[in-house]
Write the C-alpha cells for this entry.
Amino acid sequence: MSTSAPEHAPALLTGWGRTAPTRATLLAPREPADVAPALAASNGRGLIARGLGRAYGDAAQNAGGMVIDTTGLDALRAFDAERGVIRVGAGLSLGGLARLALPHGWFSPVMPGTSHVTLGGALAADVHGKNHHADGAFSAHVEAFELVTPDGAQRTVTRADDPELFAATAGGMGLTGVVTELTVRLARVESDRMVVDTERARDLDDVMDRMEREDARYRHSVAWIDCLERRRLGRAVLIRGNHATAEQAAGGGRAAYAPGRALSVPPGLPGGLLNAASVRAFNELYYRRAPRAERGRLEPLDAFFHPLDGVRDWNRLYGPRGLLQYQCVVPFGADSVLRSILERLSGERRPAFLAVLKRFGPGHGMLSFPAPGWTLAVDLPAGDPTLVAVLDDFDREVAEAGGRIYLAKDSRVRPERLAAMYPELPRWRAVRDAVDPERRLRSDLSRRLGL
Amino acid sequence: MKDALGRVESVLILGGGSEIGLATARALVARGTRRVVLAARAPERLEAEAAALRGAGAEVALEAWDATGVDGQEAAIGRLFDRHGDLDVVLAAAGVLDGSPAEVIGTNFLGLAAALAPAGERLRAQGHGTLVVLSSVAGERARRSNYLYGSSKAGLDAFAQGLGDALEGSGARVLVVRPGFVRTKMTAGLEPAPLATTPERVAGAIVTGLARGSHTVWVPGPVRWVMSVLRHLPRPLFRRLDL
C-alpha cells in the first residue's frame, strides 16, 4: 500500500499534436495499489491512463474526468538476464527499458520512432517499429500484464489464460483497464550499434520494389518519402539495418544506451514556420544529403531508431495550432491508394514533412493497427481547415481498399468509418462491455469515436 | 468532441429560429456536425428547418426555450444539457432588434446572460466546449437610432468577454461574434449599412473561428476598423453623424 495519497491536480491536456485541449483531474499514483481506488472514485466522466503523451490526438485525455499519469509506476520488479525476460512498471519508457537491458545484452523488442513511450502506452496502442515485418508489434513480445479493471480487481492477463482480454487490451487504447505492470520478452543484441545500409530510391515504384525484394534481409527497414516532389512521385531515402554483431561492432562503443543531450525547441513559436516552401527545402536537402548507396555504416542505436528524439519538443515547431499525423495501412496490392494520397499531397503542395513508408506483417490485437500491407505516415500542420475534406477522402480510399488508420495517431477520423476499418470492433466491444459495463474507462478519443 | 481540425460533433442553438443560428447549423452540418439541438420559443415552427438538417445527415432535436427573462434560465439550461449530454458548441443566437426596454434588454442581455452563465458552468464541468455569443458592432458604441439594442449588445459583449476570461484554463472557451449589418427578416425594411453582410457569411466566420480557436470574430473583417474609428470619435462629432 502507498504511504500517502496520490496528488490530484487539474490540467489542460493535449496529445503530441497539441490540438483540441481539454481539462481533466490528473492523478499520479506511486504504487499500483493506488489505481483501483482512483477507478472507484472516478465520477460519471470516467478515467483514462496517460503515459508520456506521445499519442498525437486525444487518446490520453479525458474532458471533465480523471487522467492517471502512470509515469510514477516504473519500478523494476524482476529481470532474468539469462532468458531476457523483464517485469517492470507500466510507466517505464522504452528508452528506460533499453537503458536497463542493454548492459546485459538485451534491447527493447520493438522500438517506435520515439523512445519516450511508456510500456503501458506501447501495449495500449500496440506500437510497431521498423521491424514489424520481422518481429510483429509490441504486444507480440508481452508475456503477461497486470490489469486493474473497473471492478477494482487486479488481474494477471496472459495470452493462454484470457486470450480475449489479452487481444482486446493490445491496441485497446486503455479502455479495458489500467495496465500497471508488464512482463516483456526482450530482443538479444550483441552490441549497441546498428549496421545500416542507406540508399536513395528515385520514385515510389523503385522504393516499393526494393523493399519487397530485399526487406527479408533486414530486421529493420524504413523509407522516408518526399511528399512534395511532383515529378518523381515518392522519391525516397531507404534506411535498413541489423543489430551489429560483437565482431562487427568491435571498437564501436560501450554497451550502454545513452542518447546524447537533446536540443530543445523554445515555446511560443508562431504558426506557419513549416509551410510548403520551408518543408520543400528541408525535404530536398534531406534527399540530397543522403548517400546514393552506402553499405555497412555503424550507427548508435538512438541515431538509428529515433533521430527526432534529438530535438526535444519538436512539435512546438508547428506553432499554436499544432500538427496531426495521418497514418494508414493498406493491404499489399492496394498500392494505388498510397500513390493517390501522395499525388494529392504533392499536387496541392501540402506542407507534408517527410513521410514514413514501411511494410507490415500480420497483426495481433482486436484493435491493433498493424495488418499485412504498406503503411504510410505523414505529419501535417493542423491549422489548415481545408485539410478536413482531403483527409476524409483519404479515409474513404483507405477504408474501401480494406485498410485502416492508426488510432494512436488519429485526432480527426469520422466515427462512421471505424466499423469498416476495424472489422473486429464488435468483438472488442463485447469484451469491453463485460469488463467495463458502466463505462468507467473513457477518453476524448472514445467519446469522439463512440467506442 | 471537437477534433484536431476544429470540426465539432454537436451544437445547441439558443434561438434556434434565428437566421444566423440556422445558417450556422447548416454550415456546421455540412462540415460534419451530427447532433443539432434547436431551442426556440416556438420549436414547432422549425419542423421544416429540422427536416432539412436531417436530410443533410444530422440528428435534430427541437426544444422549447424562451430567451426572455431571468427566472428559470438555470433550470432550463440544466434540462437541455441533461437531455442532450456533452455539447461541443452552444450558440447564443436569440435576440430582438427593437421593442420596449424590457423586451430588448430583457432578451438580448438579461435573459441570455442568465442562460449563458450556467451554460458556461456546464462546459467547465465537461472540460471542453465553446460558447459562441452573437454580439454586434452596435455594442461598440450606442447610437441614437438604436441605443436600446446597442446597449443590450454592449452588455452581452462585456458579459461574454468576462465569461471567456473566467473560463480560461477550463478547457471551455467563448467566441464573441461581432457582425455588422446582417440582411435578415429582423432587419428587413431597414436601409443596409455599408459593409452589410449575410447570415451565411456570419455562419462561415463562426465555423472558421471555431476551427482556429479564435476569441473574437468581426463580420466582415473590415467593420472592426470602421467601429474602432467610430468608437473614438469625439462626442460633438459623433452626434452630428446621421447614425
Q: What stands out?
A: The CA atoms of residues 259 and 302 of chain A lie 6 Å apart.
